[in-house]
Design goal:
The protein is an alpha+beta fold. It is built from five helices and seven strands. 22% of the residues lie in helices and 39% in strands.
């Protein structure tokens, strides 16, 4: 995370991050996500049946790809100095653009759309995030993610 001064928060509206490191989506992670969410649709967990689909194998749940934002945020997020707590505030928009096939690598790019000091020491960030799939033209997803930072 990149630390920023409270006095210069507004200067970071429009800030674009470097791409994060690549992360491989494994069948093990897909299976674990299926267990956690109770979503065991064959397209995710049955490699043999999934071979018969247009994808040629299993694909990650869209929500698994979305949940990876928490992992990637450690690399692309801005952190206001004095941070005491960060919270997930929700999404204004999420679009799943392309499936992530098992074994593919994904990474994130972000652009700060807005930073609003909603109360003294309370900053709401609106960040446009793209999850790219290595070697593919279409991204896995795009989202407008809202987070809240509380600073001392």
């Amino acid at each position: 995370m990149k630390q920023i001064r409270r006095a210069s928060v507004a200067e970071y509206i429009g800030y674009e991050s470097e791409p994060t490191d690549w992360h491989t989506v494994t069948q093990e992670a897909i299976n674990q996500f299926a267990d956690c969410t109770l979503d065991h649709q064959f397209i995710h967990v049955d490699p043999e049946r999934a071979k018969q689909t247009p994808f040629g194998g299993t694909i990650a749940h869209g929500f698994l790809s979305l949940s990876m934002l928490s992992h990637f945020a450690e690399q692309f997020s801005l952190m206001v100095e004095g941070l005491t707590m960060g919270l997930n505030y929700g999404f204004d928009k999420v679009r799943f653009m392309a499936p992530v096939r098992e074994g593919k690598r994904i990474r994130a790019l972000s652009k700060v759309l807005d930073i609003d000091e909603t109360k003294p020491g309370q900053y709401r960030f609106k960040v446009h995030v793209t999850i790219e799939i290595e070697g593919e033209e279409k991204p896995a997803l795009i989202a407008e993610w809202l987070t809240m930072q509380l600073v001392a």
